[in-house]
Amino acid sequence: MSVSMDRMSDQPHAVEVRFEPMTESRLEAVVAVEGQAHAHPWQRQHFLDCLASGYQAQMLLAGDALLGYFIGMKGYEEVHLLNITVAPAYQQQGWARVMLDALALWARGQGAQCLWLEARTGNTRAIHVYKAQGFCTVGTRRAYYPAGNGQREDAVVMSLQLVAAD
């Protein structure tokens, strides 16, 4: 896949981007991006647990630069998106959509009929991206996420139908 990464220059340049499986040897970079991107980041052990469980964990790279990553958990005829993160330096450039498309393609190949996720109610930018990708709000999980100072934040539950309804 070749795309332009520099939207600000007069002469955009093409850069090859690729997906690679997340591995334990690459977790230092993943954990660093996670800490930069989230107020309540996953810890290294969360990623290790996902890798040990065999979840679909992919990194989006341009050269050596980690643009982002996602982790999906396969269930019966569904996939649950556990984490999708774009590195702060590459946000608002369409990389989340690229990763969501890749996850949906993989999920369809696994026989999934639906893709699920939760998003913080206050994460309006992510919710907008999910809705633009065709996700629908299907519910709320009360006090789902930690919010600091002993507080909790609700989650919006969203789904994307991957196969046409009969």
Per-chain topology:
Blueprint: E1 2-4, E2 14-21, H1 27-37, H2 44-52, E3 56-62, E4 65-75, E5 78-86, H3 95-109, E6 114-120, H4 124-132, E7 136-146, E8 152-161
Parallel strand pairs: 5-6
Antiparallel strand pairs: 1-2, 2-3, 3-4, 4-5, 6-8, 7-8
Output the number of helix runs: 4
Shape: globular
Q: How much helicity do the residues have? A: 25-40%
Radius of gyration: 16 Å
What portion of residues belong to β-strands?
35-45%
User: What structural class is derived from the secondary structure elements?
Assistant: alpha+beta
Describe the strand arrangement of the main beta sheet, using strand numbers.
1-2-3-4-5-6-8-7
Which stretches are low in confidence, meaning pLDDT under 50 for 5 or more residues running? 2-11
Gap between N and C termini: 34 Å
Average pLDDT level: 92
Number of strands: 8
One letter per element, helices H and strands E, the order comes to EEHHEEEHEHEE
Largest sheet: 8 strands, mixed
Folded structure, characterized:
27% of the residues lie in helices and 40% in strands. The chain is an alpha+beta fold and 166 residues long. An eight-stranded mixed beta sheet has the order 1-2-3-4-5-6-8-7. The protein has helices at 27-37, 44-52, 95-109, 124-132, and strands at 2-4, 14-21, 56-62, 65-75, 78-86, 114-120, 136-146, 152-161.
Short description:
The protein is built from four helices and eight strands; from the N terminus they run ββααβββαβαββ. It is α+β, with helices and mostly antiparallel strands and 166 residues long.
